Amino acid sequence: MQSAPVPSPVMRLELVPIILFAAFAATPTLAAYSGAEGYILSLLTRVMIFGIAAMSLDLILGYGALVSFGHAAFLGIGGYAAGILASHGIEDALIQIPVVLAASAAFAFLTGAISLRTKGVYFIMITLAFGQMLFFLATSLAAYGGDDGMTLSARSLVAGWGVLKNDIAFYWMALLCLLGTYGLSRAVVASRFGRVLRGTRENTIRMQAIGFQPFRYQLVAYVLSGMMAGLAGFLLANQAEFVSPAFMTWQRSGELIFMVVLGGLGSLHGAVIGAAAFLLLEEFLPEILHAVSFFLSDDIRSRLAENWKMVFGPLLILIVLFARGGIMGLLRRGRHD
């Protein structure tokens, strides 16, 4: 009698996104029995929103080797588009989302058409410059809060219905957007377009020699990436019911890059895992430090908890240095050992 074949490591790793999205789907039910439903839903909604933003960056960074240091600008575009429209009485998401996507696509097309004519560190610096340009533009919008940002009177409506005011309904909308962007990104990567994009990452000159024009493919990928990040900005503004220039700082762009690298470049769901790891560490590290430093005086423990970022930064760097390929890289090596 023959034994059943053992699943290969690759097959097992293909289950990772299924398990990940199943965990997100099961969270509202499990959170209802935790006694902290509102907190858990809010935290994981934020994780999914930044998962969308990180995944959008992974599309150009992991598959196109385009290191954008101004990607947070699209978060700001999405948030401000929703806030400005709402301030003028246009509160329906069915109108806001197309405007968000159009504005993000237009900014991505204009800046990408210029940025993609450069390479390497020059591309990094010019995307940073465009991001900072938008940041300073937002701070100068006195009619919409300027430096202080602007508060949304309420979350967006859906066909005139205020369903998103309910945290559980908003959680499901964020999950739906995450699944949609993941499905779109996966389809793009698996298509002929995605193969050409990966080819330009490996050898641009060779792709040109066989008849492809890498610039066009990179520009389309950049526009798609910007639109997805703009959608994340729309969701982020709705969750917080607030938008400010802080959405689009270069530090936020750096955090998105860190999320992608932490999860594993070129895996899409790895970017979501990286966003989850980053945000959960950021959320719980102060409490962990306070708990593990029980042998220290109360004054030192409180100072350590207050300055937790001095531990957070080196910890992330160590993870990236010693976990080549990020979290997904660790999983791959674990399956082969």
Automatic annotation (TrEMBL):
<feature type="transmembrane region" description="Helical">
    <location>
        <begin position="68"/>
        <end position="87"/>
    </location>
</feature>
<dbReference type="InterPro" id="IPR043428">
    <property type="entry name" value="LivM-like"/>
</dbReference>
<keyword id="KW-0812">Transmembrane</keyword>
<feature type="transmembrane region" description="Helical">
    <location>
        <begin position="121"/>
        <end position="144"/>
    </location>
</feature>
<dbReference type="InterPro" id="IPR001851">
    <property type="entry name" value="ABC_transp_permease"/>
</dbReference>
<dbReference type="Pfam" id="PF02653">
    <property type="entry name" value="BPD_transp_2"/>
</dbReference>
<feature type="transmembrane region" description="Helical">
    <location>
        <begin position="256"/>
        <end position="281"/>
    </location>
</feature>
<feature type="transmembrane region" description="Helical">
    <location>
        <begin position="215"/>
        <end position="236"/>
    </location>
</feature>
<keyword id="KW-1003">Cell membrane</keyword>
<feature type="transmembrane region" description="Helical">
    <location>
        <begin position="93"/>
        <end position="114"/>
    </location>
</feature>
<feature type="transmembrane region" description="Helical">
    <location>
        <begin position="41"/>
        <end position="61"/>
    </location>
</feature>
<dbReference type="GO" id="GO:0015658">
    <property type="term" value="F:branched-chain amino acid transmembrane transporter activity"/>
</dbReference>
<keyword id="KW-0472">Membrane</keyword>
<protein>
    <submittedName>
        <fullName>ABC transporter permease</fullName>
    </submittedName>
</protein>
<feature type="transmembrane region" description="Helical">
    <location>
        <begin position="170"/>
        <end position="194"/>
    </location>
</feature>
<feature type="transmembrane region" description="Helical">
    <location>
        <begin position="311"/>
        <end position="331"/>
    </location>
</feature>
<keyword id="KW-1133">Transmembrane helix</keyword>
<dbReference type="GO" id="GO:0005886">
    <property type="term" value="C:plasma membrane"/>
</dbReference>
